[in-house]
Amino acid sequence: MSAIQPAPAAPKAGLFQRFSRGLPRLYFSFYVALLVVLLLFAMAVLQSWGRSGGPLERSNATLSRVMMNVLAPLDAPHAQQQAALEKVAAGLNAHMTLYTRDWRPLAVVGDLIPARHWRQRGITGPPPESYVRLPDGRRLLSSEPLGFIRPKAALQNTMLMLALVIGVAAFPLVRRLTKRLERLQQGVESLGAGDLTARVKVEGNDEVARLAQSFNGAADKIEQLVGAHKTLLANASHELRTPLARIRLALELVKDNVDPKRRAGLEQDIAELNDLLDEILLASRLGALTDTTQYEEIDLLALAAEECARYDEALLDGQSAVLQGDPRLLRRLLRNLLENAYRHGVPPVHVTIAAQAGEKHGMARLLVWDQGPGIPEEEFERVFEPFYRRRNTRDNSGAGLGLALIRQIARRHGGEARCVLRGDGGSSFEITLPLPSNR
Predict the structure, then answer these.
(1) Over the stretch 158-182, which tens digit does the pLDDT of each residue have?
(2) CB atoms within 10 A of CB 40
(3) Whether the model pTM is above 0.70
C-alpha cells in the first residue's frame, strides 16, 4: 500500500504572519498601491510641466531675460556692473548681490547676501527672497522678492508634501479596513478549530460588514446543524439499544425452541449491530470539532503487547515508544488493526513499533501486516472511507468503519494513518504518532 499523502498541516496562528506565503499583507498591498498611484500622478504632472512649461516657469525665464537686459554685460567693468545694479535696486529698499557663474561677487547693493556654501564659513547676511539665474550664468540674489522663486522646485516640493500627507493620512484608513478583514479571518479560523460560538463584530455598512453578517449567519446554521447531529446520534443510539436489549432477552427466553444454527446467526447479528452502534458513536465523538481526548503517558509497545495477547499468531516486535495519548482510543486503534488483519488477511499478523528521532520531536511508527495479498494500490485511500467495503475479500462482515476510526484516532493524536507498499509487493498499514519533545 503506497503511502497516502498526510493531511495538510493546520496553518500556524500568527496574524497572517506579516507575509503569508511570501505575499504582502492586504493592507500593505493597498497602501503600496496608493503610494504608487500618487507617485505616478506626481511624475506625470512634473513631466507635463517640464515639457510645456507652466506660467510660473515661463515668468521666471522672462524675469531672467529682463534682468540680463537691464544689468551691465558680463564683461563690463566693476563700476558699470555696480551702477546697473544700483539702478535696479532704486526704490526697492532691497539688498542685492550679483554673482558670477562660480559665485564670485560682481556688485553689491546694501549688505552682501552670502551664497549658500559661504554660510558654512561663518559669513552671515540677509537671506535671499529671490534667486534669479541669468542666461549668461550670472546669479542675482535679492532680499526682496523679484518674481516667483524657482517655481519648478516649488511644484516638486508641493507634490512631495502632498504625496506624503496623503500617504500618512491613508495608512490608518487602509489599516482600519484590513483590521476588520483580519478579525473576520480570525473568526473563520476559530470556527474551523472547533469554536462553534465564534462570531465577528459587524462594523460599518459596506461589503466587509455584509461579509461579516454572512459569516455570522453561516456560523449560526453550522452550530445548529452540529447540535442537531449530536442530539440525533445520542437519541438514536439510546433508542436502538433498547430494542436490541429486548431482542437479546427474547432470544435467551426462547433459545431452547430455536434451531442452534439460527440462534447463533441471530446472536451474531445482534453483536454486529451493537458493535456498529459503538463505532458510529465513537466516530461521531472523534469527528466533533472540540477535542475531548484525555491524554496521559503511554508506552505504545506495552499497549500493543496486551492487544496482541488476545489473538493467536500475532507477532510483535519493536522498541518502546512512550507518548502522550488516550489509552482507550489507542487500544481501539490497535484492536481495529488486528481485527481487520484477521478478518480480511491471512495469519500470522506482524506488528512492529519503532521510535524515530526528529529535529523538534520524534515519531512513533507502527506497522501492521499479514501474509495475504494486501490491498491494491488504487484502493489505498478508499479503504479509510467510512462504510467502504472491499469486494472479493475473505470476510465481508463489519460495517466498514474500522479503518476510518483508525485514521480519526491517529489524527486526533496529531499523527496519520496510511497504507504503504512493502518490499515484497504486499501492503501494510502504517500509523505515525508524535513523541513528546526532549527539550
Answers:
(1) 777 777 777 777 777 777 777 888 8
(2) 10
(3) no
